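Can anyone check this?
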Amino acid sequence: MSGLRDASGTIVIDEAEAEEDIRRVNAARESLDEAKQFLNPATIDSDRCYGMTRDALEEQFTQITAKLTEWQNFCDETVSYIRHVVAEYKRIDRECAAKAKELK
């Protein structure tokens, strides 16, 4: 999210920008899922690849797939965190508005 502070220095959370960030993170997550599908060890052509070569490919595919899964989990955590921050600032805004109303 860009522009986290306004001209007076107050922290501002732009919900539209937050949703755009979430869309970007989800698009990246989908790309990671597509990559994982291409690296499925079951897709190795058994007729053309066998023995130690097949074993090495399976091992590499497994390692890369695990890393992709880790990145997908990071994407999920990022989306969750963005949503949490937006909700927290909404709560703070509501509390501030209620306090301001009480003081009037």
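Reply from J.R.: I decoded it. The chain has two helices and no strands.
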